[in-house]
Amino acid sequence: MNAVAPFTDNIDKSIKQRVLDTLHSVVLLFDHELRLRYINPAGEMLFAVSAHRLIDQPLTELLHIEDSMVNALQEVMATGHPITKHEQKLMLLAQQEITVDMIVTALHNEQSGKELMIEMNRLDRLLKITRDESLIAQQKATRELLRGLAHEVKNPLGGLRGAAQLLEKELHDESLKDYTRVIIEEADRLQTLVNRILGPNNMPSKKNVNIIEVLERVRALMLAEKSSKVSIKRDYDPSIPDVTADPDQLIQAVLNIVRNACQALGDKGEVRLRTRILRKFTIGQKTHRLAALIDVIDNGPGIPDDIKEQIFFPMITGRAEGTGLGLSIAQSLIHQHGGLIECDSKPGETVFSIILPVAAGDKDHG
């Protein structure tokens, strides 16, 4: 339905403005040269750029559409016949591909002549919300399984820690004792994690956590334990704010993903740790003003097609020697922090994205 069609000339312009400003759909108005003349707040959120920086930009720079689509828009303006495009793929300024339903309508302005209005509703956003809700539901089903597994892990941890303490007493070389201390510290961290999984409310102990420090800790652990030639590179946004999280649980979640990436690569390859900030980001049904993005990217063979949709289920693994628990546990831990882990994989590039809310003032999506 055309968002402007119900308006008549005798309706006050301020009312029109308020209606456009509150629409969830994106409304773009272009002049006869296909330069942007108006964008509503939903459009600003889509582009993550303020209106005053977008005004006067050519349509082809904003949306990066194909020539055939540009011709179709020009025909709408010439003939006055509106068109509707379903599941139209667009590339935004930030090289982000989106899928939308699009309505294109020709308008006439007495002062400036012909104009073109484009209304867009994002389909990928709705699909993402549905997918997120499905992933969240999966975690509720796996928590009881994790509780049972935690009991099985708890007993060996005590023996592991005790053996490391005895070994440390026998070592005379202080440099070698660094390794036993790592074993003891990691055993203590795992014991704490197990206790929280077994706890009645399974609530993390949260405080302000620097994400880059977490990633550096994970990187150091992986460099210490792996014997392959896999390189672990950094791509950090230094301005990313702290998150409110349990540092041990966050380290565990990231470590599980990075370890999986290194194992998938085998003896050679590259893992990249990347951080970014997301604005106005929706997780499930909740929209967050700010969210932290942690990407773990590897250039390995990718996840087999037959397990892509179940990769976060327990016991699902693409490796014969794998347990299929690492990603399930990581997803559960991140879910406890109000976040989510997503995965996109193809041969040569697999990306696990950890998304965590970092700001107050969140609101439910309506």
Ends apart, CA distance between termini: 20 Å
Question: What is the name of the CATH class of the largest domain?
Answer: Alpha Beta
Mean pLDDT over the full residue set? 80
**Unreliable sequence segments:** 1-11, 361-366
Question: Can you tell me about this structure?
Answer:
This protein has 366 residues and is of the alpha+beta class. It has two domains: 13-121, PAS domain (Beta-Lactamase), CATH 3.30.450; 206-366, Heat Shock Protein 90 (2-Layer Sandwich), CATH 3.30.565. Helix content is 43%, strand content 27%. The strands form three sheets. Strands 7, 9, 10, 11, 12 and 13 form a six-stranded mixed β-sheet that branches. It has a five-stranded antiparallel β-sheet with strand order 2-1-5-4-3. A hairpin with a 2-residue loop joins β11 (340-346) and β12 (349-357). α6 crosses α7 (174-198), α6 (123-170) crosses α10 (326-335) and α9 runs antiparallel to α10 (326-335). The model is unreliable at 1-11 and 361-366 (pLDDT under 50).
Brief characterization of the structure:
This protein has 366 residues and is of the alpha+beta class. Helices cover 43% and strands 27% of the residues. It has 2 domains: 109 residues, PAS domain (Beta-Lactamase), CATH 3.30.450; 161 residues, Histidine kinase-like ATPase, C-terminal domain (Heat Shock Protein 90, 2-Layer Sandwich), CATH 3.30.565.
Identify the notable features of this structure and list them briefly.
10 helices, elongated, 2 domains, Beta-Lactamase, Heat Shock Protein 90, disordered N terminus, single chain, five-stranded antiparallel β-sheet, six-stranded mixed β-sheet, alpha+beta, 366 residues
